[in-house]
Design goal:
Chain lengths: ~375, ~400
């Protein structure tokens, strides 16, 4: 039985041409991009081509790309580097309570190191209001980080408005955006957003795990936080992983080629799932006021999410529990949205890719119905 | 330099007529546990087992494994020389150079079980002591509380020289007392219970009740990892995994909530007794500790005990949680036990469990169930895995 994979926000299957491309570079284009000979030059050109592919998806021809080992690493290099670069002009930093741990972790560490951190709370719709940011911005604010699409609920934040506001009220601030769930999925132009720094990750769009990137707009400088041989403009030294960088470039090309059609298709799948869930008694959908169609978050209150997840897994259907929580700890994102405990404990996340079909959604709906009739409810 | 490992028999040496059976069991267990460390030969004499490595054997790993084999009171890694005085004293100085340099005081002990050796024990001690003082002038002799004890044993096959003997795992060789089946949950207690019973010479089987989808593959993997750690002490474990979902669901649907854990445990006891009995076990082992949770009051144990047709050994019954945790840390199961993969089981945990149940109440509470049919089906849903300390899970 073919797996019905509906956990694409966690990771994706590597696209076959991407894997083949990475393999070809590993076995044929194995030069070190820093080497002076021809093989080195060819490796360097592959990195340049991948850079262009990434920038194309971002809708820009300018700016720089630093390839990293993950989205988390890109976030860390951006946030620590930006804070360090601007620390002479202020010590105030801002992020939201619904960020991924890859952003919350560094921001809390900066707070521990003496920066003043303001956490913006989302409304019940899962989005952070522009007004909340307006209240928080100060003349000595030096760093703002807001994610484009929430990894738990798919909530989209109004990044362009937030950037404009930041420019007005905090001229010294750098604006970072974690766009890991948006890159290659939502059509946007990084130039129109106006962000200074943007993180992305390969394995959410059909590249292997182990490759991410940080985009820096023109004239944006951050302090290095990793030191070594000076590769990638000194921001991420270490011999570049040419095969994975090439893979990210290929995956970006594929995402670009299919982006509009995939968006349409995934939007239809989301609508189909919404309609089906609407007919199931007791199901609560957490649809943010502005949401990516790639993610749908909902609860079967009374059922433990892990139990439903394993029930679905037995039918070869793979989803996430909607709250990335360990025992006893509820998701800070969902808590921040003000959801009741029973809904959080029963929360599931479905996330699509362009390879999903209406049959997949129907199979999921059927299985959820069976789960409701067969499983024992939590006490 | 030739080296051997000496295993000193513990209680086994006291067991009179059984002694040779115990020695054979210890050798058999040690031999199995040293697979993967190279080739070894085993001989025995005078309450000591000689573990003699072939060329290329990994002695460090072998010693650390033998320290976990029940039945050995002490383990020493020794140099072997000819029974020649010159060889003995130079070997002692060379072989124990590092510990002698690290010590500031020492003493020499001699055991002369080969009575044909020309020097008497006191002479060996004083002569070797003088020689070591000359070679390591920073040392002084302290007979009562030395940093290092240098031991020379003149035995039938040669002279053995070693520093302090390491305390062995103690107990009785696994297998000489029979076989028991451990009810293993994935928590802290049951692996410790298995360890304690294996130490008294019982081979260990294990039985685990899994309730997918309420419990996950990761929870099962955790149980396998715990059994694998236990196997370092007990040797090979046959782990039987019982598909328990149908019974859990039936209890949740048809029985009063307050009795659900007791009813569940009665099923476990009965299924485990039948399965273990079929596989040659003489007893069940549980990690129960009196009063720890509602199902471990003496009244609750009385109710679950009647469902077991085999005797139930409860080695932790009188221990506090902190004592159990200390043991779990010592045998290295604690860190694995506390991995949080079993939350889903809380689906079946009653909000207000009965702490002082009476057997009639429990039997009444389970009347809605067709127990024999449920048990018969569960017995057909058992997978058995073989787990050794080297098994790749």
């Amino acid at each position: 039985m073919q797996a019905i994979y509906l956990d694409n926000a966690a990771t994706t299957r590597v696209e076959t041409p991407v894997a083949q491309g990475a393999y070809r570079v590993m076995t044929e284009e194995y030069g070190n991009p820093s080497s002076l000979h021809r093989l080195g030059l060819r490796a360097e050109r592959l990195i340049e081509a991948a850079t262009q592919s990434v920038l194309r998806v971002l809708g820009t021809g300018s700016g720089r790309v630093v390839f990293t080992g993950s989205g988390t690493e890109a976030d860390n290099i951006a946030l620590f580097g930006a804070a360090l670069q601007r620390s002479g002009r202020g010590r105030h930093i801002i992020t939201t309570a619904i960020e991924h741990p890859a952003v919350l972790g560094p921001m809390k560490e900066l707070e521990r190191q003496g920066y003043t951190l303001t956490l913006l709370r989302p409304g019940p719709g899962g989005t952070v209001s522009v007004e909340a940011l307006a209240e928080a911005l100060r003349p000595d604010t030096i760093l703002v980080s807001v994610m484009a699409v929430g990894n738990e609920t798919g909530a989209m934040q109004d990044i362009p408005a937030m950037v404009r506001l930041t420019r007005e009220k905090s001229p010294h601030a750098l604006f970072h955006c974690d766009a890991i769930q948006a890159f290659g999925k939502l059509p946007f132009h990084v130039g129109q957003w106006g962000v200074d720094l943007l993180s992305l990750s390969g394995h959410k769009i059909g590249a292997p795990k182990g490759i991410g990137a940080l985009y820096l707009a023109d004239r944006v400088h951050i302090a290095p936080v990793v030191f070594g041989g000076g590769q990638q403009q000194g921001l991420r030294p270490g011999t570049e992983s040419v095969p994975l960088i090439h893979a990210l470039g290929l995956a970006a090309d594929l995402a670009m080629e299919h982006r509009e059609a995939a968006y349409e298709q995934v939007s239809r799948l989301q609508a189909q799932l919404l309609e089906g869930l609407g007919k199931m008694p007791g199901v609560v959908v957490h649809l943010p006021s502005a949401a990516s169609p790639y993610i749908l978050h909902f609860s079967l209150p009374g059922y433990r999410a892990e139990v439903v997840l394993h029930f679905l897994e037995n039918r070869n259907i793979y989803v996430s529990s909607g709250s990335a929580c360990s025992r006893g700890a509820l998701s800070p994102v969902l808590t921040a949205m003000g959801l009741p405990r029973r809904e959080i404990e029963g929360a599931l996340r479905v996330s699509f890719s362009r390879h999903n079909t209406p049959d997949d959604v129907q199979a999921l709906l059927n299985a959820l119905q069976d789960a409701q009739t067969q499983l024992i409810k939590a006490r | 330099m030739r080296e051997v490992i000496l295993l000193k028999l513990g209680e086994a040496a006291l067991k009179g007529q059984n002694k040779s059976a115990f020695e054979e069991a210890l050798i058999k267990n040690a031999r199995r546990r040293l697979k993967g460390c190279g080739n070894f030969r085993f001989t025995k004499a005078q309450s000591t087992i000689y573990v003699i490595p072939d060329e290329g054997a990994n002695l460090d790993e072998a010693v650390s494994r033998l320290l976990r084999v029940f039945g050995a009171a002490g383990v020493s890694r020794s140099a072997v020389t000819d029974k020649d005085w010159e060889a003995i004293k130079t070997t002692a100085a060379d072989y124990l150079k590092a510990p002698l340099e690290a010590a500031s005081t020492f003493r020499v002990d001699a055991k002369r079980s080969d009575k044909s050796f020309p020097m008497l024990s006191p002479a060996i001690c004083s002569e070797l002591g003088s020689y070591l003082l000359m070679r390591f002038p920073h040392l002084s002799v302290d007979l009562h509380n030395p940093d290092l004890r240098v031991t020379v044993e003149v035995r039938d096959f040669g002279a053995y020289i070693h520093a302090d003997q390491l305390p062995g795992a103690g107990g009785i060789p696994v297998g000489v007392s029979g076989r028991a089946s451990l009810l293993v949950s994935g928590g802290i207690d049951s692996p410790v219970a298995g360890y304690m019973i294996a130490k008294r010479g019982l081979s260990m089987d294990a039985i685990h009740f899994a309730s997918p989808p309420y419990t996950s593959d990761r929870a099962l993997l955790k149980v396998k990892e715990l059994v694998k750690i236990l196997a370092r002490y007990t040797g090979r474990v046959y782990l039987s995994v019982v598909g328990f979902t149908e019974i859990q669901e039936a209890i949740a649907r048809h029985c009063p909530e307050a009795f659900s854990t007791l009813i569940m445990r009665r099923f476990m006891m009965e299924i485990a007794s039948i399965h273990a009995g079929r596989h040659g076990c003489d007893a069940l082992v549980t990690g129960e500790s009196l009063g720890q949770v509602a199902s471990q009051t003496v009244q609750a144990i009385a109710c679950t005990n009647t469902a077991a047709s085999l005797p139930v050994l409860r080695p932790l019954i009188g221990l506090d949680k902190t004592e159990i945790v200390d043991l779990a840390r010592r045998i290295d199961t604690y860190e694995t036990s506390i991995l949080p993969y079993e939350d889903c089981c809380t689906v079946f945990t009653p909000r207000r469990p009965k702490t002082r149940p009476r057997l009639e109440q429990v039997i009444e509470a389970e009347r809605a169930l067709d127990r024999p049919a449920l048990i018969a089906r569960a017995l057909e849903r058992i997978d058995t895995l073989v787990i050794d300390e080297d098994t790749v899970l």
